[in-house]
Design brief:
Shape: elongated
Oligomer: single chain
Structural class: mainly alpha
Length: 87
């Protein structure tokens, strides 16, 4: 089990204890309070824990209107140029 797997399992347990309608601030606070000592006291732990928390909280962030308006098949200017060159 890696450090990231350990962090994810702890956050999964925190998630199971939270109500389904908890807001992001409550989820952040719960994750911060659940952070074990070895994630606070080691340099690797201080890198891995925030990564796992960010990964968890991303599921609950609202989708920005600008992101939702972009169709999935939209190509950036660079991608369009690469397709033209490839033809």
């Amino acid at each position: 089990m890696t450090w990231l797997d350990d962090a994810r399992s702890i956050i999964d347990r925190v998630h199971a204890q939270l109500p389904a309608d908890a807001d992001i601030a409550t989820r952040k606070r719960a994750c911060r309070e659940a952070c074990p000592g070895h994630f606070r006291s080691t340099s690797w732990g201080r890198k891995v824990w925030p990564k796992a928390v960010k990964e968890y909280l991303k599921r609950f962030e609202p989708v920005a209107k600008s992101d939702a308006a972009i169709p999935a098949a939209h190509l950036s200017p660079l991608e369009r140029m690469m397709r033209r060159v490839g033809q």
